[in-house]
Each structure stands twice: as C-alpha cells, then as structure tokens.
Amino acid sequence: MRHFFYIMSLAFIAMSCGLPPETDGGQSPEAAYTANIARAKEGDPVAQYKVGNALCCGTNKKPRFHNTREAIYWLCSSAAHQYGPAMYRLGQIYSGAITPEGLASEGHSGDLNEWKNLPVAYVWFSNAQAHGVKKADQSAKDVWTEMSVEGRKSAMAMAEHGLKASCGSEDLRSKTNS
C-alpha cells in the first residue's frame, strides 16, 4: 500500500510538471474564468490575473473563448494593483514568449509580431522583477539583448515615465516594435 501512494505521488508530480503555467491548478480556462470573474470585477488583483490568463493563454481550442485584448485588460488591471505575476505575463505577451490563442478568434492572422513590442516587454519584466518575480530578471536581460539601440532608448523612456499610463492594448501596440 505504501508503494501505491509513492507511485501515485510520483505520477501526480510528473503530471503537474506538464501543466501549462497559465492554467489555474489544472482548471480549464473557462472554469478559471467563471471561478474568478466576479472577484476580478470587484478589483481583486489575483482574480484579475487569473481571468486574464484564462482569456489569453489557455490550452483549449475553443475559438470563441479566448480574447487577447480582454486578457490584456485584466492583466493590466491586476498589474495596476502591483501584482508581479500579471506584470510578468504581460512581459511574456509583448516579448512573444507565449502564443495567445485568442489572436485567431479575433480575426487576426495569429502572427505574434502584431503584439510583440520588446521595449514594452522589457519594462513589464523589470516591473515584475521589482515586485518579487525572480524569473523576470533573466527575461528582462534576454529582451534587452534582443532589442535595437532605439528599442532600448524607448524602453528607458517608458520606464522613466511609467508604463501604467498606457496599459491599453491599442496604446501599447502602436508603440515601436524595436
């Protein structure tokens, strides 16, 4: 019996390692959305983060569920409450490190270059690092290395003026993609 629990524990650990980081404890994106949307609307930054993840980066293939613009809205709302994981996820979106499935359902080609904005990604990773997300340090360094000189200047200007003022996806997408 003891071996059974040991084997089951190992199986659970192995399966857990395979869960994508954007799922909420193995919940489907729809279940995570449903479980968190009321609290998100009330201003709970963790719930806002979970709703943003559910809308943006879920693993199911239901084309009408995912909505990248709305995901960015909820992640930005969470980030405005100084929630580091939301800042990190925004950095991932704008660096092109994750593939938001919602692009195709919004009538876009699915090309992440539409959302990729390295200066914005750098600032989000830097903010995430400042708010306790340790893995954001390497992500910021990677993005910095990939950026052009103009992109680095843009990132520094955004960092000086604060990114909070322009958190809307349209504002961010209109900035340089350097």
Task: Describe the protein's architecture and organization.
This protein has 178 residues and is mainly α. The chain is 63% helix and 0% strand. The N and C termini lie far apart (59 Å). The protein has helices spanning 2-17, 29-41, 45-56, 68-80, 84-95, 102-105, 118-130, 136-146, 149-161, 169-173. It is elongated and about 45 Å long. It has ten helices and no strands. It has a single domain, classed as Serine Threonine Protein Phosphatase 5, Tetratricopeptide repeat.
Summarize the structure in short.
The protein is mainly alpha-helical and 178 residues long. It has ten helices and no strands.
Total domain count: 1
Strand content: under 5%
The helix-and-strand class reads mainly alpha
Portion of residues in helices?
Answer: 55-70%
Q: What's the main sheet like?
A: none
CATH architecture: Alpha Horseshoe
* Radius of gyration, CA atoms, in whole angstroms: 17 Å
Mean pLDDT: 73
Write the layout of secondary structure elements.
Layout: H1 2-17, H2 29-41, H3 45-56, H4 68-80, H5 84-95, H6 102-105, H7 118-130, H8 136-146, H9 149-161, H10 169-173
Helix pairs in contact: 2-3, 3-4, 4-5, 5-7, 5-8, 7-8, 7-9
Name the descriptors:
single chain, 178 residues, mainly alpha, Serine Threonine Protein Phosphatase 5, Tetratricopeptide repeat, 10 helices, 63% helix, disordered N terminus, disordered C terminus
